[in-house]
Write a structure and sequence with these properties.
Oligomer: single chain
Radius of gyration: 17 Å
Number of domains: 1
Structural class: mainly alpha
Helix content: over 70%
Strand content: under 5%
Distance between the termini: 42 Å
Largest sheet: none
Number of helices: 4
Order of helices and strands: HHHH
Number of strands: 0
Length: about 100
């Protein structure tokens, strides 16, 4: 998988993939908004909206993997920040 991601970066270029990241994030945002606008009782009937969100999450995760390669961000750095942020969230949630 990493080889394919690196090839995509080489073929399309870093700049193009950075722009693509913004595009994919916007598409996920749009898919979430469309899902949220549906009546809560009818959301489960909207399989296409649900699948759109899944597809956009997949696209975002793929482009994020490319961003990590482009920016040479070690996975351990991401894991550490996630852990810190989740711990901070736990602190906020203690009051509830």
């Amino acid at each position: 998988m990493k080889a394919t991601l690196n090839k995509a970066i080489k073929v399309w270029g870093e700049q193009s993939q950075l722009i693509k990241a913004n595009e994919e994030l916007a598409e996920l945002q749009q898919a979430i908004c469309k899902w949220m606008l549906k009546d809560v009782e009818k959301r489960h009937l909207e399989v296409n909206l649900y699948l759109d969100v899944i597809n956009e999450i997949a696209d975002v995760e793929i482009i994020l993997a490319q961003l990590k390669l482009i920016l040479a961000i070690p996975e351990q750095h991401i894991k550490e920040r996630k852990r810190e942020k989740i711990l901070r969230m736990e602190g906020y949630l203690e009051s509830f």
